Task: structure prediction
Amino acid sequence: MTASLPASIPLADPGDPSILKQIFDFDNYWQLVALLHNSIIGGAVLGVVCGLISVFVMRRDLPFAVHGISELSFAGAAGALLVGVDVVIGSIVGSLLAALAIGALGVRARDRNSVIGVLMPFGLGLGVLFLALYQGRSANKFGLLTGQIVAIGTPELSWLIGISIVVLLSLLLLWRPLSFASLDPEVAAARGVPVRALAPAFMLVLGLTVAMSVQMVGALLVLSVVCTPAAAAMRVTASPWLTVVLSVAFATFSMVGGIMLALGGALPISPYITTLSFTIYVVCRIVGWTRERRGWNRRAEPEELQAQPQRLTGPLIQG
Result:
């Protein structure tokens, strides 16, 4: 289901010869903000969730897995579009199937990358097939790949908030053992942390997050909100909790800021979000490089890293 705009509120004309006017055109801007408030709320919610899970994606070296899951999520959404089912359901089914396959078959990094390398082209090819067979509006096809500013109506927002609550509760339960296992899986396993069970559990949570992100950002550019925020935060701080705070702030700013800019243009939403996210990352790289040049080391010392597992072994993971 897709929200529609009334004819009385004109959008920027894609055929306008002025390229700048296609990118930024703020005529009737505040009317559009009021009309598409669901997208803004959804972007803020998604920013918080993506910012949190981004930390573990980077700690566990899973950006490639995010891309693989997004391709199957795209295939599921395209299949749902073809048969007339809600694309949110199709996207979730595709993401969860990919997450289960990666989590079950790819315990080791080499095995995981092999599984993802097989799933990615299959998911993308399947999605392209479904879209080629679909005879509906071309905007619906394009939106699955690059996102849509009007993709979040009231039903979609309800889905997004409900799934976000599930993801946040899951992260709350898994946070301590997952942090320990991400830092040093061998020591964590020796201390009684169920490392092998954590991997597929986290992949399922990641799959739900990717499925939500595809609805707004599109399947091709999910990495910009699921990976980039924590990657940027890790360039400027070694503090675990400050990394989380910055990652959430960066993801939320990219999502909401990108939506606010996209309301004034005739382009898909994803270029605005990805540009903001990339700009934040570049600025953090420069800040981190400058601090290192001046001798302000942002990374923890080896002794501190060795001590972190001791601090993470709370009652939740003690045998």
